[in-house]
Amino acid sequence: MDNQVRSSWAKSLTAAVEHEKWGQMLEAKEAYEKLLVGFTRAEAGADRYSADDKTLVARSKATVSGRLKALTGSTTNSPMMTNSRPSTPIMNRKDSLSDSGKLRLSSSIGTFKMEGPVKIEDVKFLVEVIEKSYTNDRTSTPMTDANRKKAASAPTETVIDTRLSEEPDDVEAPANGTLLPPPPDPIEGQTYLTLNIEKVGLKNATQFLDPFLTISLRDVDGELLEPEQNTPISNKKQGNYVDFAVSVHLQTALKDIGEGSAVFVEFKHYKPATKKNSTRAWAFMEKTEMGEGQITLEIYEKPSDYKKKKLRLLSVKPLFVHLTVTKQVYSEE
To answer: Which InterPro entries match (predicted)?
Structure first.
């Protein structure tokens, strides 16, 4: 799971807690409701996650759902009067419980059940758990030959290479992709976007092995607003184009996409020399471009810059990402 997704979750949870502290219960409930939708969608795509990530998603959903129920059922408890929880080991796979609103891991894939009301301390503790998870990833030991041997002899220890690279590598790209269906619980009256990506223009397009696209929606700071989606691998190549013909359903309502946000499209392919998937080029669509109809996006050199500061065209040739944007307004039947 992308660290930026976890960072975004931690920030949203912290904001919800702050709303509670100031007695802004309506805003707190809205924040928790949005988080619950996000965790539910993440859970639906959990097949591509590690066991730890599945556990994290299940834990997060259970905590937020429980806190939302507690707020809906009672408004008499003042979050300002609660005490801080004593330090508890982070991400203990057997038991990592608070004194109230207990969460119990009932299976190895991260199924939780609730025992008692979930209090604000449980949400604060969840923020610690999430922050610890991506802090550990950032500080993991680089994957050297010695570390690979160590990992092979001790399979319970995971060594992750997190070194920065001019050409970021992905662990895997499922042949069938990780595209999400339309939002399962759309907000009535809200508009959602579908990106019908037709083709990507690249010099020597036929030479790329197992190409696919990673699509992400990010805010002005480059933080993920929803899970990334990968298209299936495409072997349809003609001249300077790779054909994809896929539909990408954004999970966030158009009104909730802030100014400065953008959809990023990253072209990736498999490199036999490194035995990894690598980013070749990228493009983006600003919120101001999110209207209906056909659109072409300029293609830029790697590495992807989610803050859109360093833009260098990949080619002087008129080669673009070709897509069509459609809008869907959901209304009660």
So the answer is: Aida_C, AIDA_N, AIDA_N_sf, C2_domain_sf
Q: What total number of domains does the chain contain? A: 2
**Same-domain status, 259 and 310:** yes
Distances (CA, A) of 317 to 87, 238, 242, 271, 300: 58, 16, 16, 24, 12
Residue 178 to residue 46: CA distance in whole angstroms: 10
- Same domain? 70 vs 130: yes
Q: Give ∠ CA 113-33-188 in degrees, rounded to 5.
A: 130
How far apart are the C-alpha atoms of 156 and 175, rounded to whole Å?
27
Same domain, 88 and 223: no
Whether residue 293 sits in one domain with residue 249: yes
* 188 neighbors 330 (Cβ within 8 angstroms): yes
Cβ pair 207, 270 in contact under 8 A:
no
Element housing 212 (H / E): strand 209-218
Residues 97 and 175 in one domain: no
C-beta neighbour count of 46 within 10 angstroms: 17
Return the half-sphere exposure (C-beta side, CA atoms, 13 A cut-off) of residue 139: 6
The H or E element containing residue 319 is none
- How high is the pLDDT of residue 333? 54
Angle at 196 (CA atoms; ends 191, 201), nearest 5 degrees = 140
Is there a single domain that holds both residue 314 and residue 275? yes
**H or E, element range at 135:** helix 120-138
Task: Give per-residue pLDDT as tens, 34-76.
Answer: 898 888 888 887 777 787 888 888 889 999 999 999 988 754 3
Residue type, 168: P
DSSP string of 152-199?
HH-TTS--------SS-EES---TT-----S-SSPPTT-EEEEEEEEE
Residue 203, H or E segment: none
Tokens of 138: 């950032």
Report d(CA 63, CA 119) in Å as an integer.
Answer: 9
Residue 46 lies in domain = 3-138
Give, in order, the Cα–Cα distances in Å from 167 to each of 174, 275, 276, 297, 299.
Answer: 20, 13, 11, 21, 16
Residues 189 and 319 in one domain: yes
Provide the pLDDT for residue 173. Answer: 57
